[in-house]
TrEMBL record:
Keyword Chaperone: no
The protein's name: WD repeat-containing protein 82-A
Species annotation: Trichinella zimbabwensis
Taxonomic classification: Eukaryota, Metazoa, Ecdysozoa, Nematoda, Enoplea
Locations listed in the record: Nucleus
A Pfam family matched in the record: WD40
Similarity comment: family membership: Belongs to the WD repeat SWD2 family.
Amino acid sequence: MESSDLVYEPVMQYSVCALDRGALAGLHPQKLIVQHEFEISAMDFDYSETNMVFCDAEGLISYVKMREEISEDTLNSDKYGCDIIKFMNDSMHIVHSSSKVDDKIRLMNLDKYCYVRYFQLHQAKVLSISSSPALPHFFSSSSKDRSVVFWDDRDKLPIAALDAGVYPLATLNDEFEVLATCNQAGEVSLFDIRKCYSEGPFSRSVIKKANPNEIWTSIQFSPNKKFLLICTDGSEIRLISTKSGIEGHRNNAKLKLDASYASNSTTVISGSEDGKLYLWDVKVSPDSTNCVQVFPMLCYPGPHDNACSRVLCGKRAFHVVTASKEAYNSVFFSIIKFAMESSDLVHEPVLQYSVCGLERGALAGLHPQKLLVQHDFEISSMDFDYSEANMVFCDAEGLISYVNMREKIKVDPMNCQKYGCGILKFLDDSVHIVHSSSKVDDKIRLMNLDKYCYVRYFHLHQAKVLSISSSPVLRHFFTSSSKDRSVVFWDDRDNLPIAALEAGVHPLATLNDEFEVLATCNQAGEVSLFDIRKCYSEGPFSRSVIKKANPNEIWTSIQFSPNKKFLLICTDGSEIRLISTKSGIEVAKLIGYRNNAKLKLDASYASNSTIVISGSQDGKLYLWDVKVSPDSTNCVQVLPMLSYPGPDGSVCSRVLCGKKAFHVITASKEAWFWGIS
């Protein structure tokens, strides 16, 4: 198992938490990064803090790679100008507002130096743009037209909009949990991002302005999320507690310019009209009920002839960048050489194969290679974590086996006999699972595998839970469906549901890994696709009805193919169905395996999105090579390419393939890892 590519941090990095006043006094401009002819209006780090962008109102955009040797690419958007600029969740795409022709926001590909699309809804100047590393493609913007708008960069139409008052500003926290807004009336509001479309803020406060004409110019969360930093065009920089909504401090240094939090959440750095840089050490409690004035701890002569109008600090390490017409990186005079260390290696399970490179002859060598776990009762469910280095198995009697699939397989058994276990699912880490009950009730329970304890339960369903799904993109979020006809959205930090949909008789539901689409199906043959951003308030963007030859056929599971082009629907009959996500049409039926006993048999897509593997009543494992187009309008029947004898002659009722590599796991009472000889 190889580590991922190393990420080189910009220039130098320091942990400010370990620096005292003497060390901080050594902060100085070290390197000129970029120089513009006109005042730099905005700048931003990407989320790795290895790249930056700068822009000015005339439209010059500088893309800077801040590795060992600073490399600069200049791009020009003279036609539109550039006022606010923001990286999306990669280092290749930015969005920016216009300073010249209109109020559109434009998405630019920095690699190809081209515009991808524009976003038009605002009717006045854009005041802020914010994005989150937790959710790809999503960003918000605010405008003088009083609106805060939510966007997806793959679609020029907005997701939703809020009225946020006069001259609103908006920012998202990095975890994509909270949207904070403020306006010129002094109102500061916090919204649960999951419910802000349909509900009001969970916190709202009004901050009194000594000068009613003071304009608030920017808003940002502190890295620890306990405070909001609001910059003004006056003599105060304001800190607001996100817990109480109370103003925590004001500075009295007569500043009118940008300020930014350093990575330790106590140090605030701001530019000044006199060209100096000011540093405050702000140690106040979010529970404080008093507003204190804080004076700078240190100030530094700036490199610029005029004001340090733009200041930006890194969130990962102590990076300080200032800009007027030039941009400088400021670091400490005591230069410390650092080596960027790779993150801890994640060992892949046992063996891994790229199925794309395997032909029929190699696939014919698939065989049960290693016994992973053994239960006294039939294993009812199993799941990989998202690294595919760990697995969990459960049976209806409540035995849960946690398997560490590194160099030497380690099994930790846990027993929840009181509740039993029907379906289980890893959340976004390797420590927490959610599972349904097979015995006492219809609650879903969150378990910490490390501490072997329940954290909370989720209660809304009034009948048996039929499916649970989560996404690696959005932490804490999962969905469930039940015989009570509902699909419910949950956050694992709260036992109350976020929202629920009516989805028909015996519904099943699954999320794609990118957290873009929710797919549901029900026993009436209805297959629906929902835009996950709008499914609370709008219906599906695609709905089709699949005709069943046998109306009594029960659909038992649903999953996306790894390439998201198909839905795989398992049944209690002798057919496995493939539905095109593009057209909603059934494009293939996989046949040739046995299931006369109406067993609940799993099928699973391998990582290349063409191989499908399923168990069978006769104890064999069947493999199909399904090469159909999502644009097809015909339904073809596909026979197995290969079949394999099972490990113990019993029915391979559970089958699960990895998405990252060619891992095949089967289970009845025993769970086996299959390898290729």
